[in-house]
Design goal:
alpha+beta; three-stranded antiparallel β-sheet; 13% helix; Regulatory_FmdB_Zinc_ribbon; 79 residues; Putative regulatory protein FmdB zinc ribbon domain-containing protein
């Protein structure tokens, strides 16, 4: 079940509540009977691994052997 954070707009009481997705959001503060609001924060996202790079889809032999002598020059083939 997800955890939701609530804060009272009247007294400032803040707490967390476990609720299922199908349950309605809480609207009344348990401390002072004031109005509650949900507190939203950044999602916890973790990226594991080395990541994606431009050279990931290339083979290691073609990307490391670009010496320039293997490519024909345009002036040599024109004459």
């Amino acid at each position: 079940m997800p955890t939701y954070q609530y804060a009272c707009t009247a007294c400032g009481h803040a707490f967390e509540q476990y609720q299922s997705f199908s349950e309605d959001a809480l609207t009344v503060c348990p401390e002072c009977d004031g109005k509650l609001r949900k507190v939203f924060s950044a999602a916890a996202v973790t990226f594991n691994g080395s990541g994606f790079y431009r050279t990931d889809s290339r083979s290691s032999s073609s990307s490391s052997s670009s010496g320039g002598s293997s490519k024909p020059s345009s002036t040599a083939s024109a004459s």
